Amino acid sequence: MEHKSIWEDYSKTINNNIKPFKNIKTDILIIGGGITGLTTAYFLKDTNKKITIIDKSLIGKGVTSKTTAKISFLQQDIYGKITKMHNSKIAREYYESQKEAINIITNIIKDNDIKCDLEKVDSVLFANKESNYKKINKEKEILTSYGEKIKDYQDNIIKNGFSVSNTYTFNPLKYLNSLKKIIESKVSIYENTIATSIKKIDNNYLVTTNNGTIKTNIIVLACHYPFFIIPYLFPVRTYIEREYVCAAKVKDTKKITSINVDKDLCSIRYYKDYLIYGGIDHRLTSKIDYGNNYREIKKDFINLFNQEPEYMWMNQDIVSNDELPLIGKIKDNIYISTAYNAWGMTNSTIGAKIVSDLIKNKDNKYIKLFNPRRINLPLIINSIIGLFHYLKAYIEGLFHKSNPHYVKIKGIIYGVYTDLEGKDHKVKLICPHMKCSLVFNKEELTWDCPCHGSRFDIDGNIIETPSIKKI
Ligand SMILES: Cc1cc2nc3c(=O)[nH]c(=O)nc-3n(C[C@H](O)[C@H](O)[C@H](O)COP(=O)(O)OP(=O)(O)OC[C@H]3O[C@@H](n4cnc5c(N)ncnc54)[C@H](O)[C@@H]3O)c2cc1C
Questions:
Q1: CA distances from 60 to 4, 345, 423 (A)
Q2: Is 208 left (phi over 0), alpha (psi -120 to 50) or beta?
Q3: Ligand 1: which residue has its CA nearest to atom 25?
Q4: Distance between CA atoms of 224 and 339, rounded to whole angstroms?
Q5: 173 lines ligand 1 (CB under 6 A)
Q6: Which of 65, 252, 311, 337 is deepest in the core (most CB within 10 A)?
């Protein structure tokens, strides 16, 4: 069994652009080379502007390399949730944005003859707990009112579900690889280049990176979680959800994807002769024994499918406190697209379209819906609740039972992991991003921030941002 996603072998096929630079000038700087960054570059490539993408590691190594890659508008009970939190008009607009995103992404694939194993499948939403049947019925009712054709669905795992059609699956890294090839002749790409600060100088921005500085007129933050805290206060507007995924070859595959609304979330899709199963969806600040969560999902997988997983991985996505993505302008000439609520294939695509339309001064009917500077009551209430979650995780992290032993040197606490050869690896237990206490993930041998999702290896090197400093 390998601790990596089923797609990660494909990221090796993406050519790297590790070229050193000192100081460069560009018109548009896209920070982040995942699906958001590359799709934005795709829409901007013909604008006669100089476009540059930087990525802290390699293209296709971020969250997109660990997704389950369902391209769907059936997103658990999202329309019921948005109707309750906002209103039915906003829920309908969100639905339309997802349908449009599906058209855009499938057209990009068809127009450019991209070989990324795109497959049209039905998508199923289900609840196995009777207490959740109401949520399913509500979602059915809303989608029927939008004109979707709904069919009831049951099988050996699914007790009560329904399906919709015109949804898809694909291989996300084959897609990213092709997008990269399409844009490469018009866009400069620098990998292993981490943005660490942004300064305004006259009408331009000066972005500092580990390689050199970049002077730019426009910045697109496509880096999943922004690395700065002020301005914009991103950590207050959002929280992180983590999910664990297993995959193994099976004898029978189906042309469906499925997802449930029960708390112990379970999602299924197939890829060639593999079954991909997602489970134990939790807010990052709870269930912080991340190594143990792996062991639990492995047990679930063996119970359900009677075999061991061949691949296991975990992934995390950002959820905004009012359930709608954050897409658009946050400041003069700085744009963001993120907080996709674990539905980033559609939302990154519509996000890239909105941001590129804003840069081109074109109208887009979803600008208001996803306005990243919006303030509303659910956002305020959930942001306050979120602060308590952060505090709880901070305190729990300090005393966490899965941590290896501690040493205190000159008043600073270090966590020490001793490897199989007896060598000690010592790191400070404080995340440089917002000073949360780190917890040890025994399965992957990483130090993870239970508040905002930064991750470090046993020697303190960054695996995942928002921290831009090693520990
Ligand atoms: C378990 C799980 C399953 C999911 N399944 C689905 C699904 O079935 N369907 C769906 O639609 N969505 C799904 N999602 C959500 C989806 O995967 C994400 O929303 C999406 O991949 C995010 O893409 P991105 O480009 O914004 O981020 P990323 O792919 O992470 O790209 C951001 C890039 O920015 C770089 N970066 C970060 N900081 C810096 C910096 N300071 N300087 C330079 N570069 C930087 C990173 O290295 C990274 O490459 C799932 C999420 C999870 C957690």
A1: 14, 13, 32
A2: beta
A3: 34
A4: 7
A5: no
A6: 337
What is the spatial distance between Cα 373 and Cα 331, in angstroms, rounded to a whole number? Answer: 9
CA distance 446 to 288: 13
Q: Which atom of ligand 1 is nearest to the CA of 468?
A: 41
Domains in the chain, CATH or no CATH each: 8-66+174-235+323-381 (3.50.50.60), 114-169+238-320 (3.30.9.10), 399-464 (2.102.10.10)
Residue among 121, 455, 443, 429 nearest 293 (CA)? 443
Cα(7)–Cα(68) distance, integer angstroms = 9
Residue 33 Cβ inside 6 Å of ligand 1? The answer reads: yes
Tokens 């990660």 -> residue: 8
Give the closest residue (by CA) to ligand 1 atom 31. 34
Beta carbon of 315 within 6 Å of any ligand 1 atom: yes
300 alpha carbon – ligand 1 mean position (Å)? 26
| HSE, side-chain direction, 13 A CA sphere, residue 107 | 10
Torsion, CA 8, CA 60, CA 42, CA 354, rounded to 10? 110
Report pTM: 0.95
Q: Decide: 228 and 198 in contact? Cβ < 8 Å.
A: yes
d(CA 446, CA 255): 36
Cα distances (angstroms) measured from residue 203 to each of 327, 332, 389: 23, 9, 39
Give the up-direction half-sphere exposure of residue 288: CA atoms within 13 A in the CB hemisphere.
Answer: 30
Inter-residue contact 77 to 138 (CB < 8 Å): yes
Pairwise CA distance, residues 351 & 345, whole Å: 10
- Residue 132 DSSP one-character state: G
Query: Which of 445, 465, 98 is closest to 318 using CA atoms?
Result: 465
For residue 414, how far is its CA from the centre of ligand 1 (angstroms)? 30
How many Å apart are CA 427 and CA 156, to the nearest integer? Answer: 47
Task: Give the contacts of 158 (CB within 8 A, at least 6 positions apart).
Answer: 124, 126, 128, 258, 260
Distance 421 CA to ligand 1 centre (A): 35
Q: What is the pLDDT of residues 44-98, one digit of tens each?
A: 999 999 999 999 998 989 999 999 999 999 999 999 999 999 999 999 999 999 9
Q: Best mutation site among 67, 326, 370 for ligand 1, i.e. most ligand atoms within 8 A of its Cβ? A: 67
Query: How far is the C-alpha of 402 from the C-alpha of 90, rounded, in Å?
Result: 43
Q: Whose CA is closest to 339, among 69, 21, 63?
A: 63
pLDDT in tens, 419-449: 889 999 999 989 999 999 899 998 899 999 9
